[in-house]
Structures
1.
Amino acid sequence: MSFEYLGLSDNVLAAVSEAGYTEPTPIQKKTIPSTLQGRDILGIAQTGTGKTASFTLPMIDILSQGRARARMPRSLILEPTRELAAQVEESFDKYGINSKLTCALLIGGTDFKGQVQKLDKGVDVLIATPGRLLDHMERGNVMLTGVELLVVDEADRMLDMGFIPDIERICKMLPKKIQSLFFSATMPPGVKKLTDSFLKDPKEFEVSAPTTTAVTIEQKLVKFRGDDSLKRKVLRHLLDENDIKNAIIFCNRKKEVKIVNKSLNVHKYSSAELHGDLHQDTRMEVLAKFKKGETQILVASDVAARGLDIPDVGHVFNFDVPNIPEDYIHRIGRTGRAGKEGKSFTLSTQYDKKYLDALLKFLKKDIPLLELPENIVKESPKKNQKVNKVKKNYQKDDVKINSEEKVSNKGKKVIVGMGDHVPDFLTR
Ligand code: AMP
């Protein structure tokens, strides 16, 4: 089935063909005709399914008639993260080349004044994260009484991030008669409650069960005993052994993101880090360089895992098994998108066991094992040798990192056995 049968205008169809799409994805086939008919939509779909275009394409047509008034946007799209919001704006730029719609992006960390100026001129599409939108609303910069269409994207992510009360506040400020489109990868009770109260007789669509991963992703589990230093060695081995065009490496904690990235740089890999501690502009810059292929490897935390539209990522590495099983789907979903082939490798040591058990239970199937050559993972150390071995590996492997850590710890009393959780008073 081609795009022509969905009811989109010639302008939008021309933009779609310019984007290189020949066939709508299942979510697009299912939702676009109903959205164009003015129905409320509840779409259960994860990222990578083409869901952004499933709402941006019909919105361009719906909003093609009419004019925006100052401070009164005609449509509102709520996104959980700044990156996702920025991506939706890019979608409007791409698919809206033949239309005159105006967009504004209200996200934290970027120019507040510039956002106000845009709002003053009047916008057709307002794309916002909930916190920043409420901030502008409280200052009287924006009124929602002119909104005709609302999109709440990644509703389950909004729930995880504690945004549901904010969304409820925002929805109460909207006119009663509007068209609403909700998208979520899963339907936890908190999201169900929200959709039950805001959607009117919605058309419900589900494109894939939340525990399924794209069939085009070849998944491997790499199990061995050892510490993080050995994990970094295994990671380098996998990077060298595979034909990597570009890759994302996910770590559970920001601290690990920084260490892994530094280690890769020391070993002369082209990599950059992406996590919540970075300033918004830096995050955008890092992402842009990765998209352009100027950086080959992105080391990221889960903040970056959901929804990032980085087309054509060849490989995903889980430096640790994610502590939330659903995140596995979101992480590896960065590859194998839109029918392309991709590979994922999940590193798991004795320290990941708890999370690996939970993940396999969630997936209801095993991940095929990848054997490593013996020279990469040596015999596991005996219990009382562990500390020395760990130290030795660490020194050998990541000389620079180790010395930097030593410098930063200079003057601090070393407390053994508490890991990173040493209370301040003990080190004084
Ligand atoms: P999304 O699920 O919105 O994050 O989209 C995932 C990726 O699929 C993006 O890179 C889109 O540009 C791409 N995409 C969206 N619709 C189509 C389509 N009909 N055919 C091929 N690729 C598409």
2.
Amino acid sequence: MNGSIRIPAPINEPVRGYAPGSAEKASLKARLAELAASPTEVPCIIGGEEIRTGDVHEIVAPHDHSLVLGTYHGAGPEHVARAIEASREAWETWSRMAWVDRAAVFLRAADLLAGPWRDTVNASTMLGQSKTVHQAEIDAACELVDFWRFNCHFAEGIYADQPRSAPGMWNRSEYRPLEGFIYAVSPFNFTSIGGNLCGAPALLGNVVLWKPSHTAVLSNYFVMRVLEAAGLPPGVINFIPGDSVAITDALLDHPDFAGLHFTGSTGVFQMFWQRIGGGIANYRSYPRIVGETGGKDFIVAHPSADPDALRTAMIRGAFEYQGQKCSAASRAYVPESVWAVMKDSLVAETKGIAMGDPTDFRNFMGAVIDEKAFRKLSGYLDRARDADGVEILAGGGHDDSTGWFIEPTLLLAHDPKYETMCEELFGPILTIHVYPDDQWEQTLELCDTTSPYALTGAIFSEDRAAARHAMDALRHAAGNFYVNDKPTGAVVGQQPFGGSRASGTNDKAGSAMNLLRWISARSLKETFDPPTDYRYPFMGEK
Ligand code: NAD
């Protein structure tokens, strides 16, 4: 098609409120009831075909183990081989398709998700991952719509970036997709991340094998269905849930493996990097490795901090989605003077948090994702009960009789290196260290050096000079840094997301920086009137 085509200017998808009595609440409630009452059978989707492998696993609600939401069919090595073959076939046309046609698929997927599929993807996220309606809405609906729309806009900018041409020639950059397939491995905690890890490389013309987390299969399957409904050709993205080790073993040694798009824990990412490095001589190209991983996200308050703003940020930052956000506040440094003013209200508000089934809209928190997370978090709480140097100020309880429930917990650590100040817990546990007001400088140093991660962090200060000083002192301590705000809730197109140090490659999901990893540029030089004699003019005389 001739024409300098422009992508519609993206705007962030408005967040729906689901207020009592609203039509949007009634519609979502109806879908929740349907999905809970009629279990979904999730197949693998390979080359556009639904494959029922027979390796069947149950999908249950974290907040109610007895609620079986469906089953999924796990992929084995033979299905992985089939998916690689399907992706290779799809690559022939998809990698050559005009980028505006690929963008049209994702723009349409965004509109389908914002419209007719919104309730299904939100409801499956609420039920399968135990998110409240607000947490599902900002993730599964709004953030994924934003990823798909904004990525088209960023791709437009990349394709438009062209080199200069000297007289007599025409220089061009062609942004080719990678030669081979991308392996997208997504975490349980954000439905949107699943749709972005597979979607971003595919938008640039790549083909993808997508392995969702086994605890997010239901919502991720519906995301795959949205992409199909939007016209994604068969084989461009192949959906292969199942045993992560077996699937990885079956594909990582393939010569066509061209890139890893991973979000998950640090240990798993480091394993991937080592495996890929070990096999480097066998690949057709050097695989791109993009990984966003763990965090030990902090809030540091200056003596000038507003106690009410600080308290609200601590509660929302630490306890929303049960602290299972990579960006969740999990350690806080509060000066004695501010602590004296805010301690009682912080403890009282934490104790008052409503936790339970997220389909009851009065709850602020649901359950943690599975038994493994429950056991790990209960262990931290049980140790804190007996340990020296730490006190439980609120919460500390756990109950697995109906679902995997961990109480929102405040720990007060006298030892700033107590284990819960240093390690990623991934649960609703906030550890606070109270420091003498005159130790601001030392506290910034402590914050910077306590953990190997550098994902998100926040400082609270009403004193501009102190805020500036903290921004400088903690320059490398967080890839997403907040001043007088909670360290969670990054929005696509507004705060590109990712961390450095052990937290990942910091390729900033939902930005052009990420998309650049999925292309391999070809520089083209065309000469209009080429020379016909190899001799240069200076050779005309002695
Ligand atoms: P996880 O590492 O357990 O799993 C992530 C993915 O890796 C899943 O698909 C899983 O099946 C797969 N996986 C696990 N072990 C594997 C193995 N041995 N071989 C191959 N694949 C394997 O992480 P999770 O519990 O799903 O998610 C939570 C983690 O993700 C936390 O550490 C959190 O900080 C991180 N996270 C980071 C970001 C970010 O942007 N930095 C965003 C979300 C989550």
